[in-house]
Amino acid sequence: VVPQLLSVESGVSIFHRQDDLFKQPKAQVTFYIYSPYFHQDVSSYLKTALWSNCVEEALQDYAYDAQIAGMGYSIQLSGGCLKMALSGFNDKLHVLLEAVTDKMVSMTSVPEHIFGIILDTFGDDLRNQAYHSQPISQAQMRFQDLLNRGSSFPAPGTALELLETLPKVQRNDLDNLCQSLFVDGAHVEVLALGNLTSNDAKQLSNKLVTGLKLTKPLKSALAMPCLPYRAEAAFPTGSTLWELDSADVDDPNHAVMMKLQLPEGLEDEMHVMLLDKLLGAKFFEILRTQYFGFEKMEGLEAEVVLGLFFVHRHVCVD
Predict the structure, then answer these.
(1) Distance CA 312, CA 296 (A)
(2) Is residue 39 a contact partner of residue 153, using CB atoms and an 8 Å limit?
(3) In this predicted model, what pLDDT tens digit does every residue of 9-65 receive, in sequence order?
(4) pTM check: above 0.85
(5) Which helix (H) or strand (E) holds 1?
């Protein structure tokens, strides 16, 4: 059974499915918080990403105790929104949520040692992504840049652009950032699963809204401020060839990706899944066993449009 939409209140949409199979005293709640600030520009994206990582780092001791008690949480900027996931015993989720939101609001200034740790780690990840990604990863990231808007950092931003902007972000730029994130409004989507009643899901949603002071809802695209723009492009008819030089000039490997895009529909989706199963074994037999040094990946994508992609990755072996 798919989660059902409980209600659409001011700035909050709640999707809920109560467990009726395992009946364990556990649950999972994920909050997807949308704000125009996150993707306003490259600098605002970096500030939000660094700040959310700093919040997690500041809660390390609390998170350790929570983990021992069977609870867990995460905060990350992902898919065009600030994603907060909570899991564990259903009667303690509100305690964990309150601790996380209190830290988000009360951390008006990021401690210098925490900022230094996060900045170093974040910078290393960006450098690896910009200069040392595998060819297949570079191809996948470029497809994301070309086809999607609003689900990653601001288009046409790249990891290299983020890396160039990162040194300009200072610790005091994160002061009182939680207030700035939602000053233009926010929209929250909630997915509540497990041993939670519909009232439990609503109470947790209200606690998030109250804790973060999300009093200003976003509106439709016809009004301002509006929900952030998100879209996936449809391929043009025919075929298109894109060539991309590797970001790592010393890497002798390369990749070739082919992506087919079909109209969205349940019947087409089932056909592509069947095709995926039929071709998988044959691809493995030919490319992995008969051509040494070749690897293959294949998969199904079903988002706004349906796609099937095949990748050949050539690995040079001395």
Answers:
(1) 5
(2) yes
(3) 778 999 999 999 999 999 999 999 999 899 888 999 999 999 999 999 999 999 999
(4) no
(5) none
